[in-house]
Recover the amino acids of this structure.
């Protein structure tokens, strides 16, 4: 409710601005799989370390034209998260500024629907950074891979207790896990999972 | 970029680091479901497909279903490049399993072909080599060096110019010119003499002979002769030994031809063929052993020249036969040689043993022969053969074992006993006895034994079905869906491929009493008798050659010290074959399966 009110306000504000087109409903057949690596797990405090996005067009995952951004070292980059995403301070020395990175990201995704693994978390973190800089939240429709997997499994095999881990679902769908815990790797794997799921991989196995 | 793509294999190993980075950054990914058509015949090629995992079949839509599958691709294989080079796809590519592919766009592929010529050549070449292979498989009778090596004197001789004793020197010279010959034969008082151009020159110039004097006066009557069925290299040996430039071919005391040295030399141009000459020239066991040790070298030379395997098999069988026969002649006293017959059996008898594996041999003695030292002589013969490079038989099927030395009537009794008993060992003994081939001594003795074998088995339906059942003991290593099984340790092509063909063909040969003992010879005979369709017989022969060739490659690699010594050469690891070899192997195994089904139908083995 609040979200849609806020979106209506955003749209009005941006109507004649540079990003007005983002608020138009999407009519194409593409999706964008996204993933971020962050400094923490709490969407209220986590800072972005890297963002990746891969377009899905029909049966194809367009890895040749993917976005893979590294950001400048945020203040909260600590040992705990470094252990997960393996991006150290020095790796981010040539990273983009937050403003430039988000501009590229928004231009890349456009108004396409977003696909992600627990995509709400990523969208929340991104929005927290987008709003102060651009004055709106991402208006895109988002599709959560974990959720649609769960829904599909319940539909086909209601008796099964879903086992919801990124790796175990990848295995169940017979998708190779590409570079786990890199933003682009996770985004690509999620995209492949989506293709498999929509092609009815669960019925087959 | 993080796409997990393995670019260390050909063709991507032909790119440099920057090229590989362009591939890794330029590929998309796509999933295809089982049974989905990725690229249809006639469609333009838009991508090169690199399989990450899954299986894809290449189908020729113009062929009937059973034969449509012409290619098979799995993880790491590349397809679609040829469709781009040709503009459109000739075949249909359809997944057999869900498949994840990397897609290399056409534009990038074409750029890479331009920047890295070796990369482009790889695809053009594989197109060409595939086409060449198909052509080679169709044209089965290519001219080959091994074929020449097996040439007999009869194939190389010229018709002689024969003159009478009244012919004059002048007439002789005119005749030589007319016939473009170098020598002529003079027949006089039941004897035959030879006059060569050199003789005529010497007579006219040095001795000042008149033109009208008879040519008889300068003829030589000690002739170096050969028989028409002799090997050509034997003729060459006698020329070398007697220091002459031609031999006269005699058949029952009448001259029927002349073989000139120049004709023979044109047959022998490569060094490796000299091995056969060494075998012929060997005067003692040491020389024979030296020649025998060079046989693997000859095999390698033949294989590297792309000689067809059945020619190589014929040549090696002939050479092995000559070596054993010479050893027999050196060791066994002449009066005993005519009373006995030394036979080789099993793969050696069929002439399908390319590298020496083990001795399978036996001795037939003429009924009523007297040879007290036989056992000791045979012991020596086995040891000698071992020194010549034939390892002893683990099953002890050798002449040193008294069970495998017997008189004609003794052998007949033994065979009757085997036929009656019909257990595994007896059937195996009959199998190797059927393949028996006489190499030394009085070769006619074996004919009587084979006749007895045919008489006692070929009409016995129950025996034949027992015999045929052995061919079904091992199933062809194919999955339910007709693709190759691929266990990590490899598939056994001897059990899964060679043995079923050999045993099945042997059973049919026993039923039809065919005389040849080689599997290919039997197939020809069976096709000629109408027992098998000629096409199916040819397919079986091709399949057998393929299995033998695959095995031979591994055996040769082992001789070179490559590959682990404990590796069984019968095991072929499917994963290590090229996709073309895999296709051929799969097709060959399908032929084996088909053959097994026919056998079980014919001999009522369905249960």
């Amino acid at each position: 409710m609040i979200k849609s009110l806020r979106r209506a306000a955003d749209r009005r504000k941006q109507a004649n601005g540079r990003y007005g087109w983002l608020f138009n409903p999407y009519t194409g057949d593409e999706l964008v799989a996204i993933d971020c690596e962050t400094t923490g797990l709490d969407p209220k405090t986590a800072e972005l370390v890297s963002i990746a996005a891969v377009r899905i067009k029909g049966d194809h995952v367009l890895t040749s034209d993917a976005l893979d951004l590294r950001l400048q070292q945020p203040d909260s980059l600590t040992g705990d998260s470094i252990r997960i995403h393996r991006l150290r301070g020095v790796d981010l020395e040539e990273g983009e500024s937050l403003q430039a990175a988000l501009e590229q990201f928004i231009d890349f995704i456009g108004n396409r629907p977003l696909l992600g693994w627990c995509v709400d978390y990523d969208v929340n973190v991104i929005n927290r950074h987008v709003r102060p800089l651009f004055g709106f939240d991402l208006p895109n429709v988002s599709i959560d891979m974990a959720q649609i997997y769960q829904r599909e499994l319940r539909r086909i095999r209601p008796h099964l207790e879903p086992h919801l881990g990124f790796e175990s679902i990848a295995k169940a769908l017979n998708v190779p896990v590409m570079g786990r815990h890199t933003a682009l790797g996770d985004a690509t794997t999620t995209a492949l999972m989506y293709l498999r799921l929509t092609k009815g991989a669960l019925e087959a196995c | 970029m993080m796409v997990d793509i393995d670019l260390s294999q050909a063709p991507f190993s032909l790119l440099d680091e920057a090229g590989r980075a362009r591939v890794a950054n330029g590929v998309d990914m796509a999933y295809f479901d089982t049974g989905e058509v990725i690229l249809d015949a006639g469609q333009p090629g838009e991508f090169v497909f690199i399989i990450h995992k899954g299986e894809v079949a290449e189908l020729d839509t113009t062929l009937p279903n059973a034969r449509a599958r012409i290619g098979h691709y799995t993880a790491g294989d590349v397809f679609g490049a040829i469709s781009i080079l040709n503009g459109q796809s000739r075949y249909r590519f359809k997944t057999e399993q869900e498949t994840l592919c990397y897609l290399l766009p056409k534009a990038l592929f074409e750029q890479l072909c331009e920047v890295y010529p070796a990369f482009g050549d790889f695809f053009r070449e594989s197109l060409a080599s595939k086409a060449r292979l198909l052509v080679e498989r169709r044209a089965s009778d290519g001219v080959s060096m091994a074929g020449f090596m097996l040439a007999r004197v009869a194939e190389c001789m010229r018709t002689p110019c024969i003159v009478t004793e009244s012919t004059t020197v002048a007439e002789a010279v005119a005749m030589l010119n007319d016939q473009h010959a170098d020598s002529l034969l003079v027949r006089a008082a039941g004897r035959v003499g030879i006059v060569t151009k050199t003789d005529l020159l010497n007579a006219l110039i040095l001795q000042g002979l008149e033109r009208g004097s008879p040519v008889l006066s300068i003829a030589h009557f000690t002739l170096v002769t050969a028989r028409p069925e002799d090997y050509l290299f034997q003729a060459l040996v006698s020329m070398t030994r007697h220091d002459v430039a031609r031999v006269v071919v005699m058949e029952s005391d009448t001259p029927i031809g002349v073989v000139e040295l120049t004709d023979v030399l044109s047959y022998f141009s490569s060094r490796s063929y000299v091995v056969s000459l060494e075998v012929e020239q060997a005067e003692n066991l040491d020389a024979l052993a030296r020649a025998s040790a060079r046989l693997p070298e000859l095999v390698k030379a033949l294989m590297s020249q792309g000689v067809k395997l059945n020619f190589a098999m014929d040549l090696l069988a002939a050479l092995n036969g000559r070596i054993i026969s010479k050893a027999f002649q050196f060791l066994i006293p002449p009066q005993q040689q005519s009373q006995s017959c030394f036979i080789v059996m099993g793969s050696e008898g069929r002439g399908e043993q390319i590298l020496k594996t083990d001795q399978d041999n036996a001795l037939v003695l003429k009924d009523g022969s007297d040879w007290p030292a036989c056992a000791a002589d045979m012991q020596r013969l086995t040891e000698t053969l071992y020194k010549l490079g034939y390892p002893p038989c683990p099953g002890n099927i050798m002449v040193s074992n008294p069970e495998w030395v017997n008189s004609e009537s003794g052998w007949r009794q033994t065979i009757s006993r085997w036929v009656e008993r019909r257990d595994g060992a007896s059937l195996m003994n009959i199998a190797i006895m059927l393949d028996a081939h006489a190499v030394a001594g009085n070769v006619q003795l074996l004919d009587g034994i084979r006749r007895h074998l045919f008489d006692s088995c070929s009409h016995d339906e129950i025996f034949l079905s027992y015999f045929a059942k052995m061919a079904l003991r091992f199933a062809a290593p194919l999955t339910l869906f007709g693709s190759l099984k691929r266990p990590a340790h490899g598939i056994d092509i001897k059990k899964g491929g060679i043995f079923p063909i050999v045993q099945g063909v042997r059973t049919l040969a026993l039923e039809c009493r065919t005389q040849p003992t080689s599997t290919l010879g039997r197939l020809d005979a069976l096709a000629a008798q109408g027992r098998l369709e000629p096409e199916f017989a040819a397919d079986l022969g091709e399949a057998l050659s393929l299995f033998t060739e695959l095995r031979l490659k591994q055996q040769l690699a082992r001789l070179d010290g490559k590959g682990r010594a404990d590796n069984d050469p019968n095991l072929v690891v499917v994963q290590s074959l090229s996709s073309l070899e895999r296709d051929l192997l799969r097709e060959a195994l399908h032929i084996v399966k088909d053959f097994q089904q026919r056998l079980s139908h014919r001999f009522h083995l369905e249960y």
Q: What stands out?
A: DSSP finds 26 helices and 20 strands in chain B.
